[in-house]
Design a protein that fits this description.
Blueprint (H helix, E strand, L loop, with lengths): L4 E2 L2 H8 E4 L7 E3 L9 H10 L2 E6 L1 H5 L12 E2 L2 E2 H4 L2 H6 L1 H17 L4 H14 L4 E6 L5 H5 L4 E3 L2 E8 L5 E3 L41 E5 L8 H13 L2 E5 L5 E2 L4 H7 L4 E4 L12 E3 L5 H8 L2
Parallel strand pairs: 4-7, 4-12, 7-8, 12-14, 14-15
Antiparallel strand pairs: 1-13, 2-3, 5-6, 9-10, 9-11
Helix pairs in contact: 7-11
Length: 304
């Protein structure tokens, strides 16, 4: 599985040709580009019969909680795009700037609350569990809002902004401090005219393990880094077992997550997309609901 990266939209459809079907090893599949259905009654029939549901969520679901997606027009922090800052190279070059960016995001995410989408998924999981059915959420989001909403079966494939990893000893630890260190207090303003704080590296977040004191970094997957193999193994197990897949608020351009739903669809499993607009993967799915932002209302209701 390749590293975390954004794949240009024009290449996505090319990637969908050549998928390997888990059900038929060695068989190459090129997904047909048909028009997906918006028939909610038909979707509800499939939903009612499903025993193992996977929900793939992205930044769009958390946008309803007031969190920026850093996608498209206006998707900047100061004058940088997220992919300019969320890299090991950027951190090595200017750890102060990268920590300012993540401090800004931590503070926003700390105060954000789960919205009806998050809550509907968590409620659905609890309700179906009593019926002997399973719901698993595989999220690209690092905000922990699914966890805050009460979701139990949760795979956070890109990590959590509320965990740190020491660049010296490698220890991973939960950290909900606000601010994460005194030097970042009041820093991280996103406006383009804001100057870098240029915080000395020794005043940035440091490891609290005995005799360490190494520089901490956010425990998230940055562009160019590989996803945790253990988590990926769990992801592929869930995708292989599911009999219904819901795609919620994701642009389907960030690899490898962009390939998860098409892989499920390739073996004939129904996939329903709930999004603000079409994505490069939309026409490979059986159901869709996104026109005019209607999915914000229809998605929670679809889970009953």
């Amino acid at each position: 599985m390749g590293p975390f990266q954004i794949v240009p939209s024009r290449l996505i459809s090319q990637l969908y040709c050549g998928l390997k079907s888990p059900a038929a090893k060695g068989t190459t599949i090129c997904l047909s580009m048909a028009r997906p259905s918006s028939n909610m009654a038909s979707f509800r029939e499939v939903f009612a019969k499903s025993k193992h549901i996977v929900v793939l969520s992205g930044a769009g679901i958390s946008a309803e909680s007031g969190l920026p997606t850093f996608r498209g027009a206006g998707g900047y922090w100061r004058k940088w795009k997220a992919q300019d800052l969320a890299t090991a190279e950027a951190f090595a070059y200017n750890p102060s700037r990268v920590w300012e960016f993540y401090h800004y995001r931590r503070e926003m995410m700390q105060s954000a609350e789960p919205n009806p989408g998050h809550l509907a998924i968590a409620e659905c999981e609890a309700r179906l569990h009593k019926q002997g059915r399973r719901v698993t959420v595989i999220t690209q989001n690092i905000d922990e809002l699914h966890r805050k909403a009460g979701t139990k079966n949760l795979l956070e494939i890109h990590g959590s902004i509320f965990k740190t990893r020491c660049t010296s000893c490698g220890v991973v630890a939960e950290n909900h401090k606000s601010p994460i260190c005194p030097a970042l207090s009041g820093k991280g303003a996103p406006e383009p005219e804001t100057h870098d704080a240029r915080i000395p590296v020794e005043k940035l977040p440091r490891c609290e393990e005995a005799a360490c004191g190494g520089l901490l970094r956010p425990h998230v997957v940055w562009f160019g880094e590989n996803l945790d193999p253990a988590i990926l193994e769990e992801v592929h197990r869930e995708l292989a077992l599911c009999d219904l897949c819901l795609v919620v608020g994701t642009s389907s351009v960030v690899y490898p997550a962009a390939m998860f739903a098409p892989q499920v669809s390739a073996r004939g499993v129904p996939v329903a997309e709930f999004n603000m607009e079409t994505t490069p993967a939309t026409n490979t799915f059986r159901y869709k609901d996104f026109q005019g932002g209607r999915w914000k209302v229809s998605f929670p209701g679809a889970l009953w």
